[in-house]
Amino acid sequence: MNCTDCKSEIFDLLMDPASPANATARAHIESCADCGREFKSMKATFALLDTWNAPDPSPYFDQKLAVRLREEKELAPAGWFERLKARVLFNTGRQFRPALAGALALILLVGGGTVANLTGFPHSAPETSATVQDLQILDKNAQTLQTMDQLLQDDSPADDAAAPPIS
């Protein structure tokens, strides 16, 4: 047994020192000086608490409590905003846990769907507009016409050599 385990079992040892389940803790306390001091300190604290006598409540405690309860019942009920504010401020928040879990699940679904692109809509390549398509056709036609002009000019010198020179 190490010191951490022993310190967690000191309370059990104080409550029931003769229990066989606490034999390892007792053996560790006898061999470890730090744990022995901790045990003696806790034992002294419990002995001091045993000698303490709690003060008796005031003889008018019940009457004062009854008057306070009656006053609280006679007060006008708080508005819904005051009740909501009190619920939020003085509550543990257990009733908000399902809503919080749902909100986090929704955020994960939206975030995960955005990252994974699982929107369900097929994505196609962006379409070119009709104007762009017309310009591309005109560009191809211009290139074709230029190529044809070059071919015609290449054929022209051979025809010019056979023709008589013009003077």
Features:
167 residues; 7 helices; mainly alpha; 71% helix
The gyration radius over C-alpha positions equals 47 Å
* SS element count, helices: 7
Distance between the termini: 124 Å
Oligomer: single chain
Number of strands: 0
Helix content: over 70%
Q: Sketch the major β-sheet.
A: none
Give the uncertain stretches in residue-range form: none
Tell me, rounded to a whole number, the average pLDDT: 84
Order of helix and strand elements from N to C terminus = HHHHHHH
Beta-strand content:
under 5%
Task: Describe the model.
The protein is mostly helical and 167 residues long. Helix content is 71%, strand content 0%. The protein is built from 7 helices and no strands. Helix 1 (3-15) packs across helix 2, helix 1 (3-15) runs parallel beside helix 3 (33-51) and helix 2 crosses helix 3 (33-51). The radius of gyration is 47 Å and the shape is elongated. The N and C termini lie far apart (124 Å). The mean pLDDT is 84.
What is this structure, in a nutshell?
With 167 residues, this protein is mostly helical. The protein has helices spanning 3-15, 23-31, 33-51, 61-74, 80-89, 97-116, 130-162. The chain contains 7 helices and no strands.
